[in-house]
Amino acid sequence: MVIVNGEEQTAGKETVIEQGGEKIVELRVDSNVLSQKIDKVININQSEDRQGQNLIEIPVAAQGVNQIRSILTGDIVKKMEDNQFTLVINTEKVNYVIPAKEIAIEKVAAILNVALTSLQQIEIELRITYIDEIKVNEITQRGRDQGIEVIVQPVPQERCRRQQ
After folding, report:
1. CA distance linking residue 91 with residue 35, whole number of Å
2. What is the value of pTM for the model shown?
């Protein structure tokens, strides 16, 4: 399920994978369905002369996961960017807010040597990996030792690019 400007839409699939003792959730968005929904939002905004933030929310239903992988195609990211959409990945712990323009799909395409007319060949995988409790406690203690208060659980970040 995907939520576009507050309206739920069946536009993807959530798969839970057990790998090496870890629970991984993969959220693969259906580009065709989401593209149609974005077009509908754009038309409504234009007909009603609406300005403002457009949101695409991907809620994660699975609980107790070690990693979340949200996968979007480059053409959808470009359409989101062109129409000022923000991507929100809703998890049990926190919501991650990523303006589509921050993904910089045109730069990604240039690096991968993919024409802008072939963005659907690029898959953007946004990964959220949770650190185990022992590592969190270690980082928190190191922070305290340096006089730093850790107010949000550390989350490693990585960028992955994959071309179909």
Report:
1. 23
2. 0.81
